[in-house]
Amino acid sequence: MARSAHYTGVTPEVYNQLKSKLQSMGLSLEGDAGKINEKGVSAKYNYNSEAESLEIDDLSVGFPASMMLNADSLVQRMTQMIEEYGGKAKS
Length: 91
Hints:
This protein is 30% helix and 34% strand. It is of the alpha+beta class.
């Protein structure tokens, strides 16, 4: 089942930290909006620097990434990192 995650308070610095963290996992966010389809992870993302918001939609995790994590654990990792740098998950 696809997951969504929406965040507020995501400054450009927080977004860049997230991009770095995901890059270390082999996932690339190119620009402020687009799609990920790498290593079994697929999602759509949209970052708005003026509103300091990040929306990740249709997140799903398949093979080979599913050997190490699932969509819930990936969202949990992203949320933890974003909150560590001052952003927060939107309810």
